[in-house]
Amino acid sequence: MKKRFHQLGESMAQAYQDRKFQELQKLALEYLKLATQYKSDWNYGNAIHQANIYMGLMALEKNNIDEASSFLIKAGQTPGSPQLNNFGPNMLLAKKLLEKGERNSVLIYIDQCKNFWRLLFRMGRIKKWKKKIKQGEIPDFRAHLFYHLRYPAKATKDES
C-alpha cells in the first residue's frame, strides 16, 4: 500500500495528461484516502496538495469556478513536504482561476503557502505575486506551473 501511495502522483499526472478525468478523479480520491493512513510519511503533504490541485483542475473543466476555488484552498492546507518546502507550490490551478477572473481564492492559497514555503517567501516572491494579482494581472509563475504535479516527460504544450 505504501508503494501505491508513493506512485499515485505519477498516475494522476498521466491521467490528467491523457484527459482521462474519470480515472483521475478516482485516483485523486484514493490518494486522499491513503494519505489519512500515512500522515507521518514524507509524501503526505504532497498527496494533499496534488490531489486537490487535480480535483480543482477537473472542476474547471466543467467551468465550476467555486468548486475549483475550494479545491485550491484545500491544496493550500497541506502541511508541506520536503518538495513543497524547498521548491514551493504548484500554481497551475491558481493561474487558470486567475484567467477566469477569480482572485480571492488565489490570494488565500498564496497566503497559505507561507506556512510551508518560508525561504522564498522571505525573498519576496509571494509578495510580488500578490501585488500583481491585486492589480488585476497574472504573475509569471514559471516553473511553479509544473512543480508537484509530477508530469511525465512528455507533457503537452498546453501545460507548458
SSE diagram, text form:
Blueprint: H1 2-17, H2 21-35, H3 44-61, H4 65-75, H5 82-87, H6 92-99, H7 104-113, H8 118-122, H9 125-134
Helix pairs in contact: 1-2, 1-3, 2-3, 3-4, 3-6, 4-7
Written account of the structure:
It is globular, with a radius of gyration of 15 Å. By secondary structure, it is an all-alpha fold. 62% of the residues lie in helices and 0% in strands. The termini are far apart. Residues 151-160 have low confidence and may be disordered. It has one domain (2-150): Serine Threonine Protein Phosphatase 5, Tetratricopeptide repeat, CATH 1.25.40. The protein contains 9 helices and no strands.
**Which strand-content bin applies to the residues?**
under 5%
What is the tally of beta strands? 0
Point out poorly predicted stretches.
Answer: 151-160
Give the overall shape, derived from the CA principal axes: globular
Roughly how much helix do the residues carry, as a percent range?
Answer: 55-70%
The CATH C-level class name: Mainly Alpha
Mean pLDDT: 89
CATH arch. level architecture? Alpha Horseshoe
Can you count the helices? 9
Structural class: mainly alpha
Q: How far do the termini sit from each other? A: 32 Å
Quick overview:
The chain has 160 residues and is mainly α. Helix content is 62%, strand content 0%.
